[in-house]
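Researcher: Here's the sequence for the chain we discussed earlier.
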Amino acid sequence: MTSTAYQQMIFVNLPVNDLDASKKFFTELGYTINPQFSDDNATSVVISDTIVAMLLIKPFYSTFTKKEIADATTTSEVLVALSAESREKVDELVDKALTLGGTPSGETQDMGFMYGRSFDDLDGHTWEIIWMDPATIAG
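Model: Thanks. This is the structure I predict for it:
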């Protein structure tokens, strides 16, 4: 159980092939870079106050694990799901990702109360963008 005073954060660490291209991709999606935690080996992409994607070049990423690094273009390693404030915002973000070089991933999910689309980023990592009707969430 978490305290209401403490906001737990998530840091998603992802291996990338081209750090500059990935940085450009995510900043053009509207996210910001935290230079305090970025260098030639890694970039800190701030998605929200509590969500950060750490993009690490593969040699640096490999210093954190003894496992083989998955090729996310052929192997599913993780599905990162982010909420959106509306159906329109889901479409806006996914459409923008596709124009920036991302690729479609999966089918559009439209259940009325929930709507989602997904894309693979430049390195094949899957990002699911989901909207849920606030009235449904409230019960």
